[in-house]
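Onboarding guide, step 5: your first structure request.
Type a short instruction followed by the sequence, for example:

Predict the 3D structure of this protein.
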Amino acid sequence: MDTSEVEKSKAHITVEIIEYIANSVVIKTILKKSTGNISVMSFDSGEGLTEKTSPFDTFAQIIEGKAEIVINGESNFLHTGQSIVIPAHEPNYVKPNGRFKMIMTVIKSGYE
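The system replies with structure tokens like these:
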């Protein structure tokens, strides 16, 4: 997993920042601050994220492919260009629907 940030003051094509790796979830940090972080992720077919609950709101946007994001037991089917806000303190997980890439933004304020 590469945790270094992308180069600042340089234009990027977000979907090209990260590649697929067989049988893996790959995470690349775009920006990491004490108040939150932005990451781009790639998921190979069959790969997802297990259920978790975060103390912070999370913005998830599909930038390639499609996935199912389940929040508090409710399925949300998203495809390229669609996004959803995962509320703080709600159990959630990501189920794959083939290969896909997404951006996740966590805002770590307002819940002190």
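Each response can be followed by summary notes, for example: The chain has a mean pLDDT of 91.
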